Amino acid sequence: MCLAVPVRVERLLDNEMAVVEMDGLRKEISLALVDGVREGDYVILHVGYALTRLDPEEAERTLALFAELANRLDDLGEVRP
Amino acid sequence: MKGPWEDLEGRIMVAVHLERGYVADVTVASTRRPELCRALEGMPVKAVPSMVALLFHVCSAAQECAARIACEQIAGLPPTAGEQSRRQIRVVLETVREHAWAVCIEWPRRLGMAPEVEAFAGIRSALRAIDEGLPDWPDKPMEEGTLRALAQAIDRALALEGRVWEGPGALHSWVTAGICPAAHFLQKVRDEDLAEFGRCSLRPVPDMIAWDLDGALAADVDHRFVSRPEWEGDACETGPLVRMSGHPLVAELWQRYGNGLLTRLAARLVELVGLPPRLGQLLDGLSGNDGVLGIGGNGVGLGQVEAARGRLAHRVKVEGDRVSRYQILAPTEWNFHPRGPLWRGLVGRPAGNADILRRQVGFLAVALDPCVAFTVQVT
Question: Judging by DSSP bridges, how do beta strands B12-19 and B374-378 pair with one another?
Fold first, then answer.
C-alpha cells in the first residue's frame, strides 16, 4: 500500500498467514516478512504482505491522524472516499 | 480488500481496445487522488515533514525528504551537510528496497512463480543494519561489513555469483542460466520476443526544472497538472530507465531495442546492483547530493527528490506559520499519463491473442512500476 494505513490482525492462521480487518473488511495476508505478530497487533500492508508491525498505541495514533486528515478534506470541500 | 482506505489510495486501470487484430487505443485511468495532500493545509509548517513520513509507506523516505526540502525553503535554513547526506542515503536505501521488492516479489508473482521472500528479507535486513547506523553517522563510521552484506544479499537474490553485466552478452548468459526469478522474467521476455514490447519515443522529465515546475504547480488550481503532468505539451517519463540511460549496458540495449520491455527491466536491475557502491560513495563523503533540489522564497518552497520510481516534487505555500497550500507531484502520474509510455508503446501494435496480450501488457506495467495496484483489461 502506498499509504501507511495500519490494519488490525484479527486471527493468526497456519503457514505464516493471518486474517486482517480494516473498516469491517477482512482479508488473508502473509506474515512471512515480519516476526512476532500477535492477534490484536497492527501491521502496515503492501500487496498482501505485512511489512511492518506497529504496537496498538502507535497504530491508533496513526489511524486517528488519517481520520483527522479525512475530516480536513471535508472542510476543504474535497470529496472524501 | 476494497474499502475506504483503498479508495483513498487509488489504483491504475489499463484498458486495451483491439480492432481488426491491432491495438486501436489504450485507456490509462487512475483513481489516485493527488489532491489528498490538501489535508495538510492549515497545519503548522514545522509539523508537515514528520506528518508526511507517517502517511506514506511505499516511499516514505523520499516523501519526507521532499517535504523537508520544501519546508526548509520557507525558513531559508538549509540543513547541515551531514543531515543532507543522511536523507540522501535513506532515499537510496529505500530505492534498493523498492527495486528488491520488484525483483524478488512482484516479478515472480507476474510469472506465476513463488515470491523470493527469503531473498527479499535478506536485503531488507541488510538495509536495516545500515539505517540503524545512520543517526550516529558520520561521527561514528558505519560498521565495516554492513555495506558488503547488502551487496552480498543483492548478489544472492539475483544469483549473480560475482558476475558483472558488462554488455548484452553477459546479460544473456545470466538470463540463460535462469537461476532466479528476475532471470526467468528476462527469459520470458526473450522467449516471447518482447524485448521491444512497448518501444516508443518519449522524452524524459527534464532535469530539475525547478522554477518552471514551480510555475506549473502554482497555476494548477484544478489538480490537473498533478494528475496528468505534461511538459511543453508532452507526456514524459521518469525513473530508473531515464536515470540509467547512460549506463553502457542500458545504452546498448536501448540502441537495439529502444525503450522496450527488456531495456526497462535491465535498467532497474543495473540500478539495483549499482546502489551499494553509490551508498559507499555517500557514506565516504565522496558524492554530493545530486538527487535532491530545493528552491523557494516569498512563502513558497519546492523540494524535488529522485525517488525509487522517479522524480517526486513537493510544493508548500505558507501564510504566517501555517500551510495554505500543499501539492505533491509523484512519478506514477508521469509514467501512467493517459498519453504516456503505455499508450505510446502499445497503440498500433498487432494484437494476437487477447489473453496473452493482457499478460504482456501487465509485464510492461510492472516494468513501469506504479506505486499502487493496477488492472489490465483487453476488449
Answer: parallel
State phi, psi for A73 to the nearest 5 degrees: -60, -40
Identify the burial level of B16 via C-beta atoms within 10 angstroms of its C-beta, where 0-12 means exposed, 13-18 middle and 19 or more buried. buried
CA gap B10, B259 in Å, rounded: 27
List, for residues B68-108, the tens digit of each pLDDT value: 999 999 888 888 888 889 999 999 999 999 999 999 999 99
Angle made by CA atoms B114, B118, B120, in degrees to the nearest 5: 90
- Residue A67 placed within a domain: yes
B-chain residue closest to A26, CA distance: B1
B287 confidence band (pLDDT: 50, 70, 90): low
Q: How many domains does chain A have?
A: 1
Using an 8 Å Cβ cutoff, are B129 and B149 in contact?
yes
Total beta-carbon pairs less than 8 A apart between chain A and chain B: 87
Domains recognised in chain B with CATH numbers:
4-378 (1.10.645.10)
CA of B118, closest CA in chain A: separation in Å? 8
Determine whether the interchain pair A22/B5 forms a contact, defined as Cβ–Cβ distance below 8 Å.
yes
For residue B35, the chain A residue with the least C-alpha distance is A78
Assigned domain for A1 exists: no
DSSP E strand boundaries for A1-81 = 6-12, 17-22, 25-30, 42-46, 49-54
Contact, A26 vs A32, CB < 8 A?
no
Q: Which residue of B has its CA nearest to A44?
A: B57
Residue A38 belongs to a domain: yes
Interface touch B58/A24, C-beta < 8 Å: no
C-alpha cell at B185: 522474467
The CATH number of the domain holding residue A53 is 2.30.30.140
Assigned domain for A39 exists: yes
A51: containing domain: 6-76
Which residues on chain A place their C-beta less than 8 Å from a C-beta of chain B? 1-5, 20, 22-27, 30, 32-33, 44, 46-47, 49, 51-52, 62, 65-66, 69-70, 72-73, 76, 78, 80-81
Task: Quote the ipTM score.
Answer: 0.84
